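This section describes the prediction task in plain terms. A model, or a person checking by hand, is given the sequence of a single protein chain and must write out its three-dimensional structure as a string of C-alpha cells. No templates, partner chains or ligands are provided. The sample shown here is typical of the held-out split.
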Amino acid sequence: MTRGNIGYAVTVGFDGSSPREIFVSTHRNTGEMTALARDAAILASLALQYGCPLHVMQAALTRESDGTAAGLAGAVIDQIIERGIAA
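The expected answer:
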C-alpha cells in the first residue's frame, strides 16, 4: 500500500483463523515515519491479542471528512478489513 509517496508492505499473522499480528515495513528507512508505522502495527497487534476487534479500532481512529483514514494505522486496518482478511 502507498501513503503519501512512501510504499509500505503489510503482513498479517494469524492464530488459527484470527488475525493476531500486524507487521508494517517500508523499503526505505524514513526515520520517524518508519518508527510510527512499526509502532502503530505493534499497538494494533497487542490490541488484537487482547481481544479488541479490528472494526472497533477502525471506528476509533481519525477519519477525514469523506470517511477515509487520516493516518497510516487507519489505512492499514481499512485495507485488512476491505480485503476480507478479518471482520
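For orientation: The radius of gyration is 12 Å.
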